[in-house]
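Supplementary Methods. Inverse-folding protocol.

Structures were first reduced to a discrete structure-token string of length 291. This string, shown here, constituted the complete conditioning input.
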């Protein structure tokens, strides 16, 4: 959103991440400039070097999209157990499509998705959750407003053979997150934005997944709740050993959090590096972090 400069010399706009920039870059310009850096796309060896140990999740040569529309082109990805990876890039680059493909929501044209040595490319979303240990936390408000907080958590265990397991996991989550425990019997509609996000994350934990796919964790939240959500994700990664693959609109926040960062442009991986290395790259800063 543009705003007049105090000196009257022109307009300033908020950048992709945080802060302000004096030069307005359209999405097309960002994509074009980022594409100019993608001539030397990161090799498989480069991606492997960013992984701490053996990969838990591996994507090889993924071409995927929706219906007849192809969005992803020869995408490769590697992340180890207990690591976090953030996908950044201009709007429409295909970031969420990677998460959708991992979870089974897209038409996969070719390529493979593996958990260690198991090919899960053709697994259904239910199989991805129950058999492969992958949970997807949607960016949209996905709580059931008229159900209680406790009932929302029980819904996270809908694939469990014994629903008492879901109730036991809910009790464990309430022990961990007092904010939810205090509202256990209340309808979810009374929760704040941050509490709703916490409930969405917690519901995904009921099945005790190894991998969390997190789509835009900060979207629509006030800064204080954004910090709370990232503290929770940090505990899940470093305290419980969860692997996190994230798409984050606030590229600076995402790269500060994650071990690995990929820059996606036009459905391709244009750059890949450690999160802090991408943060320090002046061109990444200019294009994606607000100057």
């Amino acid at each position: 959103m543009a705003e007049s400069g105090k000196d009257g010399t022109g307009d300033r706009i908020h950048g992709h991440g945080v802060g302000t920039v004096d030069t307005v870059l359209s999405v097309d310009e960002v994509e074009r400039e980022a594409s100019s850096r993608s001539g030397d796309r990161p090799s498989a060896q480069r991606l492997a070097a960013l992984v701490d140990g053996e990969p838990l999740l591996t994507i090889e040569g993924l071409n995927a999209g929706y219906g007849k529309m192809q969005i992803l082109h020869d995408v490769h990805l590697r992340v180890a157990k207990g690591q976090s990876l953030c996908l950044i890039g201009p709007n429409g680059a295909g970031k969420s499509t990677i998460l959708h493909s991992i979870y089974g929501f897209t038409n996969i044209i070719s390529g493979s998705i593996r958990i260690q040595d198991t090919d899960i490319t053709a697994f259904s979303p239910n199989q991805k959750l129950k058999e492969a240990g992958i949970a997807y936390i949607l960016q949209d408000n996905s709580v059931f407003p008229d159900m209680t907080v406790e009932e929302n958590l029980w819904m996270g265990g809908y694939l469990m053979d014994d629903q008492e397991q879901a109730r036991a996991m809910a009790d464990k989550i309430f022990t961990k997150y007092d904010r939810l425990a205090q509202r256990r019997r209340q309808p979810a509609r009374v929760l704040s934005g941050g509490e709703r996000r916490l409930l969405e994350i917690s519901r995904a934990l009921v099945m005790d997944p190894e991998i969390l796919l997190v789509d835009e964790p900060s979207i629509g939240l006030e800064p204080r709740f954004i910090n709370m959500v990232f503290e929770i994700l940090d505990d899940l990664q470093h305290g419980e050993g969860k692997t996190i693959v994230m798409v984050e609109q606030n590229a600076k926040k995402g790269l500060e959090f994650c071990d690995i960062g990929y820059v996606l442009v036009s459905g391709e991986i244009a750059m890949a590096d450690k999160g802090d290395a991408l943060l320090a790259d002046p061109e990444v800063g200019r294009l994606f972090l607000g100057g």
